[in-house]
Specification:
By secondary structure, the protein is mostly helical. Helix content is 73%, strand content 0%.
Length: 421
């Protein structure tokens, strides 16, 4: 309850400060941006099931992370924001360790971000969540407009786009959940920027040849050098596009994995049916038929054949559904040498969350490792499926032929070896 009260008080304080100290130049770092960061921070915090105290630290840091813009220049605003947050927490009689953690989360948002704890990672990822959102284009325009107003400088479209590309290429999300949730959209936004810049360069080339480097530096070069650099950039772009799997490949991975999982579920269902049916047969044989063997000795052999059929069928069905679990651990060397597939729970279920999170981040930052792991995952799913269906095939064959043999044995026993009263 205390955590909710502090979070509510932080919300009221920050909202009042933005209302009472309006800055016409802050068209991006305004109350709307803070509210969006708070919303994403709450989503990330909920995913990681933070305690009440940890949730309070993240939410207060999210509310205060940019308030320093109201009291000075953009440079160093993180330290001002952290000081204001500490003052607020001290007035509310929060302990020193909470004040330090909130300040640490705010200061970790300074570019380049370098968070060291999960709470700092959550706040950092929430602060730049717009990079992987559908609103990126609009938010990026607002940031450009704000910088132009603050520095009284007109930034060309090519220069801003090139800078945005460089920033997105250098940025990585720190939590595994943010990577899974936001990275795909961020990659799409990055590709749109690359296409936009390429189109502008191509259009400008027709009028006056320039290179990407010259646009960024604001200079014009010679025509020959411009054409040569453009060819190299085009070749590099084509090479990068060829190296990066497109949506069709990702759809193939998703569809194949889904089909394998569906087939595995079907195999388990069939095995459970065989186990249930034969368990009923065995219970009937033991409770009804075998009690009457003294009166019907001619049914001993047919009964044993039927019992052996059911038991063997159950054994094959159980083997088809019996899970195999690996050691559940991996080392740093395994990740660096790409020897561990973190997409399979058996390789990490005994590892601490921090180690697994680090391993997943390393894998997601390496497309070769990521797609290689997906290929291995599909392959081993197929291997398991092959084993399941082979054992299931044996179970059905045993049941089918054993049932036929048992019925024939009962018929022979009844006709040729009748019980004489």
């Amino acid at each position: 309850m205390e955590a909710e009260i502090i979070i509510s008080a932080a919300k009221q304080y920050v909202t009042r400060e933005y209302t009472e100290h309006p800055h016409p130049t802050l068209v991006y770092h305004n109350l709307m941006h803070t509210q969006q960061v708070v919303k994403m921070a709450a989503q990330l915090a909920a995913h990681y099931h933070l305690s009440d105290e940890e949730m309070m630290i993240v939410m207060v840091a999210a509310w205060f992370h940019d308030i320093g813009y109201l009291y000075g220049e953009g440079k160093g605003h993180e330290n001002r924001s952290a000081d204001i947050a500490r003052t607020f927490l001290a007035k509310n009689e929060l302990p020193e360790h909470i004040q330090q953690q909130v300040a640490g989360c705010i200061q970790a948002t300074q570019i380049p971000q370098n968070p060291t704890t999960l709470l700092e990672q959550i706040v950092c990822d929430a602060d730049l969540a717009h990079l992987g959102s559908k609103d990126f284009k609009d938010r990026n325009k607002l940031l450009r407009h704000e910088i132009a107003l603050v520095f009284n400088k007109d930034i060309s479209g090519e220069e801003w786009t090139a800078g945005s590309i460089a920033f997105l290429e250098s940025h990585t999300y720190h939590t595994a959940y943010a990577n899974a949730l936001l990275r795909p959209a961020k990659e799409e936004n990055l590709q749109k920027l690359r296409d936009k810049l390429a189109n502008k360069l191509a259009k400008h080339e027709k009028e006056q040849p320039v290179t990407l480097e010259e646009v960024t530096a604001g200079k014009a070069g010679k025509a020959k050098e411009g054409k040569k650099d453009k060819k190299e950039a085009t070749a590099g772009k084509q090479k990068e596009k060829a190296a990066k799997p497109d949506r069709g490949v990702e759809t193939m991975f998703r569809t194949t994995s889904t089909n394998h999982i569906r087939l595995s579920s079907m195999a388990d269902s069939k095995a459970h049916i065989m186990i249930s049916v034969n368990s009923i047969i065995i219970s009937i044989l033991l409770s009804v038929l075998f009690r009457k063997l003294d009166d019907y000795p001619n049914l001993v052999i047919p009964g044993l054949i039927f019992l052996a059929t059911s038991v063997t069928t159950i054994v094959f069905s159980v083997l088809a559904t019996r899970p195999n679990v690996n050691s559940g651990t991996f080392s740093k060397d395994d990740i660096e040498n790409q020897r561990t597939n973190l997409l399979f729970f058996g390789n990490f279920h005994k590892m601490p969350l921090e180690d697994y999170q680090w391993g997943m981040t390393q894998m997601m930052n390496n497309s070769e490792y990521l797609y290689g792991s997906m290929i291995k995952d599909i392959y081993y799913l197929g291997v398991v499926l092959g084993k399941k269906y082979r054992l299931l095939h044996n179970a059905y064959n045993v049941f089918m032929f054993g049932l036929i043999l048992s019925v024939l044995a009962f018929i022979v026993a009844a006709i040729f070896f009748p019980v004489r009263q």
